[in-house]
Specification:
Elements: H1 2-11, E1 15-19, E2 22-26, H2 34-42, H3 44-60, E3 64-68, E4 76-79, H4 90-96, E5 102-105, H5 120-134, E6 140-145, H6 148-161, E7 166-172, H7 182-205, H8 209-230, H9 237-255, E8 261-269, E9 288-295, H10 311-326
Parallel strand pairs: 4-5, 4-6, 6-7, 7-8, 8-9
Antiparallel strand pairs: 1-2, 3-5
Helix pairs in contact: 4-10, 5-6
């Protein structure tokens, strides 16, 4: 068997790689015995085929990040927020327990080898075959957080068009795609600035005149200190790549116009107040075959919902949604990852 041979070579610190139609070997002096050389010569084509297949499989499935690979339930494949960080789901996967398989979907561009994608449909085309290859036959639960909601929605449509069964789509605090366009973003910035001005105006009005100047000075110094702490001392390649992915993802979602998905969409919103925000999350219902809305605590927001202490609440809401859509079917045993 080729794997056994390669394992034996590795144990002798002999490393084999394919370069075109040739095998390249890195080995300490004397480690590559005549017997091993003969095996490599005789089994060259078999070893080349194995290495190419392994390389191809690694390339095809490099988007899949196992956050919690165990369990017999329908697996969740989650798209992260605009920065592509799938570990936003780590606490949620832990709260859902060891019987709920949960995988993150990492976009290209974070490894520095590929350019980020700038079209939501391209993200769906990138993720879909990897999911089908990694975990065959479905069904699947597709999740999206924040800006990743639009990508998750289109991914579900893509998988369904290829015959895969989508149990439901779970959107965690996901603004509707039009919320990322220029005018809504301008309105949001104006509203945020207005809220900040009102807050400081009230704080100033509650202080004697002699303390107002000191209040403004303290706020200005605090803001400058925060900006300085966020600025890296020297260029950080990881942050630069993440920034590039962020800009590409936002550009993709901004141009995206969702088309109808006949399946079920669960909208898990940070709080009830979010329904009236400029993010217009309830518009997802207009392009879904069916939908249900779940609300978090009143003091929660999109930045906090997948973090402690709020993540436990959303794990329970997810279970409620999962049980409502799937039932408790003990016979359900989806195909395992390859």
């Amino acid at each position: 068997m080729v794997p056994a041979l390669l394992q034996e070579l590795l144990s002798r610190d002999i490393r084999i790689r394919a370069e075109g139609d040739r095998l390249q070997c890195d080995a300490p002096a004397g480690a590559l015995t005549p017997e091993l050389q003969e095996q490599l010569r005789r089994r060259k084509q078999e070893i080349l085929a194995f290495l190419r297949q392994a390389e191809s499989l690694a390339h095809q499935q490099r988007a899949i990040v196992p956050l919690q690979p165990l369990g017999t339930r329908v697996p969740v494949f989650g798209v992260g927020g605009h920065n592509g960080d799938v570990f936003c789901y780590r606490a949620l996967a832990r709260h859902l327990g060891k019987d709920q398989p949960f995988f993150g979907l990492q976009p290209p561009g974070l490894d520095g080898h590929d350019e980020p994608l700038t079209c939501v449909e391209d993200y769906a085309a990138y993720f879909a075959p990897q999911i089908l290859n990694y975990w065959s036959n479905g069904p699947y639960i597709i999740a999206g957080f924040c800006a990743g909601g639009g990508i998750a929605f289109e991914l579900a449509r893509r998988l369904a068009s290829e015959g895969a069964e989508i149990s439901f789509v779970a959107l965690f605090g996901s603004p509707y795609s039009t919320a990322y366009r220029a005018l809504p973003q301008l309105r949001m910035r104006v509203a945020t600035q207005a809220e900040r001005i009102v807050k400081h105006a009230r704080a100033l009005a509650a202080r004697p005149l002699r303390e107002q100047a000191q209040y403004l000075t303290d706020k200005w110094r605090g803001r400058r200190a925060r900006l300085e702490s966020e600025r890296p001392a020297e260029p950080d390649t990881v942050l630069a790549m993440r920034s590039k992915v962020e800009k590409a993802a936002i550009a993709a979602v901004r141009r995206y116009t969702p088309e109808r998905f006949e399946g079920h969409v669960a909208l898990l919103l940070p709080s009830r107040g979010w329904t009236d925000s400029l993010d217009v999350p309830l518009r997802w219902r207009s392009v879904a075959g069916s939908s249900q809305v779940y609300f978090g605590p009143d003091d929660c927001n999109g930045d906090l919902m997948l973090r402690e202490p709020y993540v436990g609440v959303f794990a329970e809401l997810f279970r409620r949604c999962r049980n409502a859509n799937l039932g408790v079917r003990k016979s359900e045993r989806p195909s395992r990852a390859r």
